Amino acid sequence: MTKLNWGMIGGGAGSQIGPTHRISAGLDGHFLLCAGAFDIDPDRGKAFAGSLGVSADRAYGDWREMLAAESARDDRLDLVTIATPNATHYEISRAFLEAGFNVLCEKPLTMTANEAREIVEITKESGKVCAVNYGYSGYPLVRQMRAMIANGDLGKIRLIKAEFAHGFHADAEEADNPRVRWRYDPAQAGTSAVFADAGIHAFHMACFVSGQTPTELSADFASLVGDRQLEDDAMINFHFNGGAVCRLWTSAVAVGRMHGLTLQVFGEKGGLSWQQQHPEQLHWTPLNGRTQILERGDSDLSEQAVRASRIPIGHAEGMPVAFANIYMDLADVLNAQRTGAKPDPMALDFPQAEDGYWSMRAIEAAASSAKANGAWTKL
Ligand code: NAD
Questions:
Q1: Where are the transmembrane segments (predicted)?
Q2: What is the ipTM of this complex?
């Protein structure tokens, strides 16, 4: 298999998520990092590109310069990852899709549902791929949950409990720290803070494993620290189109909670429980039966979970491997795009522009419901 040419925008030196992308994309050896506009500061971005082994003629100071130069090359990029701050995602994704590139955009895909709908339409017209990095859906045991639910092991899904509650913005003394403050500033963060930033992963996971989408929601937003204009805690109830009720709690003030992403699904025939901080075990309780622990690496897991698992049972894999599964799916789809072959159907599980669109709809509906004292709001 020839390597796929890969470029990055954002994710420069010292960024939070840039290194995870580079580790994940490199894991299986499918992608070669050959171009990038890594930083808001052009000189720093070019110097960083050099340190990553990107040749000087493909180290760009600005994404527009990168778009123009890369569009003219014969050895075009097969994939462009966008790991810049949220407010830039729409403009950059749109420009690269319209120029015929495949895109993996960090979440959130856009700042509004209308922009996300446009990206969905542009993606369809372009025939290219637009993935959104809801990377936690790449965990093998999350894919196991999805496979078990699709297989009917739980029967009809009655209830989903999703949480992404951490405690890292709980210190009132820290509220003015610029890295914290912008997240609660409507001008920079939009209509929601902790739901849009953290809870949205739990929302995507609930939809991903259940195969359902929401029809309506009722939200209670609270700002519990200082004079924050946006919520630092939220409880949202959803009704899903397959009949499931979903209860989602997200918080940034839950002192003592670390990453805090958990997912429980309860059906007529049994229940599943998974925690991101202990991703190697999935708890499965059949109705009237004992709880069993399914281990990542067990040989009798679903083919989706086996495909997503890299190292032997009993050795922790973790988040970069989960993200690597998104890149593995994309490599499969992009190689099929190159050769005209059909991709492995299991590779189509990666989060797509439609998922980004549903997230933006949920954020807007939750913000409007919270303003109306939790009124049930249609999606
Ligand atoms: P960060 O501030 O740590 O890093 C952003 C990087 O982008 C910096 O290197 C900056 O110089 C660069 N940059 C900014 N504007 C740019 C521009 N116009 N052109 C080129 N480079 C530019 O941010 P972060 O925490 O790494 O977050 C980046 C994105 O990733 C955000 O959208 C965030 O929501 C998302 N994120 C996703 C996850 C996840 O689990 N999927 C986790 C963390 C962050």
A1: none
A2: 0.99
Contact partners, residue 73, CB within 8 Å, separation at least 6? none
Closest CA to 183 of 175, 193, 191: 193
> Does the CB atom of residue 19 touch ligand 1 within 6 A?
no
Query: What is the whole-number distance in angstroms between the Cα of residue 246 and the centre of ligand 1?
Result: 30
Question: 298-356: per-residue pLDDT in tens?
Answer: 999 999 999 999 999 999 999 999 999 999 999 999 999 999 999 999 999 999 999 99
Tokens linked to 305: 């979970």
Quote the distance between the C-alpha of residue 21 and its chain's center. Answer: 12
Structural domain spans, the chain? 4-136+325-352, 137-309+358-378
For ligand 1, atom 9, the nearest C-alpha belongs to 12
Supply the Cα-derived Rg of the chain in whole angstroms: 21
CB-CB contact of 360 with 189 (8 Å): no
Q: Is the CB of 40 under 6 A from ligand 1?
A: yes
The DSSP letter of residue 77 is -
Q: Pick the residue whose CA is nearest to atom 31 on ligand 1.
A: 85
For domain 137-309+358-378, give its CATH number from 3.40.50.150, 3.30.360.10, 3.40.470.10, 3.30.460.80: 3.30.360.10
217-267, pLDDT tens digit by residue?
A: 999 999 999 999 999 999 999 999 999 999 999 999 999 999 899 999 999
